[in-house]
Amino acid sequence: MKNKFFTRRSMKRLAAAVLTAGLAGTVLTGCKTSEATGGTASKEAASGKEAHIGIIFTEAGLGGNSFNDLALEGVKKAAEDYGITYDQVEPKSVSDEEIIQDEMAASGEYDLIICVGAEQVDALTNVATTYPEQKFALLDADSDLENVASYSCKEQEGSFLVGALAVLAKQEAADSKLGDGKTIGFIGGVDNPLINHFAAGYKAGAQYIDPEIQVLIDYAGGFNDPTTAKTIANTFVEKGADVIFHAAGASGMGMFQAAQETGFVAMGVNLNQNDIAPDYIMASMLKKLDSCAYHAITSIVEGTYNGENQVLGLSDGGVDFTVEKSNIQVSEDILGQLEDLKQKIIAGEIEVPSELK
User: Fold this and answer.
1) Three-state SS for 265?
2) What pTM did the predictor assign?
3) What are residue 190's phi and psi, to 5 degrees?
4) Which of 150, 226, 256, 267 is deepest in the core (most CB within 10 A)?
5) What 3-state class would DSSP assign to 321?
6) What's the pLDDT score for residue 11?
């Protein structure tokens, strides 16, 4: 229990020492200077204030070419544009996340602490309440706390488009791996409301094009289990699926491996994953967590932070899809149809469900 009679400065120094010890432990990896990112921009270009940022990833960590990596790209861009410095942290377990949040907040050294993922919400609720003067940003989840700016996306809208693409590509026989069957698949990391935004949108988009399409849905049980995702993908193929979309973090790498070994068409998520296996990955649904992280840091640099909550969709560039870097050719006719669907969603003519039915 912290001594309430400590001065704020002495508490900062003590907590900073604790954080330093923690940084030397097994749960943290850091990058503390903008030089490490190649950033050379002057702080005066924004507000004249050097900002020091902390970012805590989900337990899935970096290297899965997914949302943790994407969030880091936003931080790196802020380092380049504003000259901010940052520490990046990869917890080894969900239980580590609250410890790391608390250490960072107690140090008083961070102008903003960015927490990635819904799995950090409970911990952040405790920590942000304990440190009401510390500014936090929560990516990919929501919080009602005044010192937590939340950024989330309408995953279902981007997923609707890749679901429609899956069926349109099958109808056009855009690739030899696509058949005329009525089955496609979706692999989620875990069965929770957020991941089911992806599943619901994907299913709705596919069935908007062909109501008879069957969408197989299963979950890897975690975001760092490629073996299970690969097993699920192979099971889907046995049931007739020739297109599979994942929202499973690093687990999705197992699905991509199955695609290359078994010969089905895959769909990536969060950032452009097409070049991982360009002969097998047709498209990726984009979720702009890099923009969210960058926006959060900008609000600190420019002094506009207000604990806001934002939900970004197709209309404001929060989600989209891409076929770039894929060797599977999607026709201009299909891309035109998808653009029409996109505009109908933006106009409210198509209401995309966020829950599975």
Assistant:
1) strand
2) 0.74
3) -140, 160
4) 267
5) strand
6) 37
Please write the tens of the pLDDT for every residue from 289-345: 888 999 899 999 999 999 888 888 999 888 999 999 999 999 999 999 999 999 999
57 neighbors 90 (Cβ within 8 angstroms): yes
Higher pLDDT, 60 or 241: 241
Q: Are 199 and 267 in contact, with CB atoms under 8 Å apart?
A: no
Burial group, residue 45, by CB count within 10 angstroms (0-12, 13-18, 19+): exposed
Euclidean distance between CA atoms 286 and 278, whole angstroms: 16
Count CB-CB contacts under 10 A for residue 3: 8
pLDDT score for 37? 33
- Contact between 29 and 218 under an 8 Å Cβ cutoff? The reply is no
Predicted confidence at residue 51, as pLDDT, reads 94
Secondary structure of 105-149 in the HEC alphabet?
HHHCCCCEEEEECHHHHHHHHHHHHHCCCCCEEEECCCCCCCCEE
Tokens encoding 182? 């009525």
Q: How far apart are CA 228 and CA 234, in angstroms?
A: 10
- Confidence class of residue 60 from pLDDT cuts 50, 70 and 90? confident
Contact 270, 289 (CB under 8 A): yes
Instruction: Count, in order, helices (H) and strands (E) of the chain.
Output: 10, 12
Neighbour count for residue 97 (Cβ, 10 Å): 27
Rg (CA), the chain: 21
Structure tokens at 352: 């995309």
Q: Is-contact 193 349, C-beta < 8 A?
A: no
Contact predicate 246/186, CB 8 Å: yes
> What one-character DSSP code corresponds to residue 251?
G
pLDDT tens digits for range 161-171: 999 999 999 99
Sheet arrangement for strand 214-219? 214-219, 183-188, 243-247, 265-270, 281-287, 319-322
User: Which domains, ranges and CATH numbers included, belong to the chain?
Assistant: 8-153+289-315 (3.40.50.2300), 155-287+327-347 (3.40.50.2300)
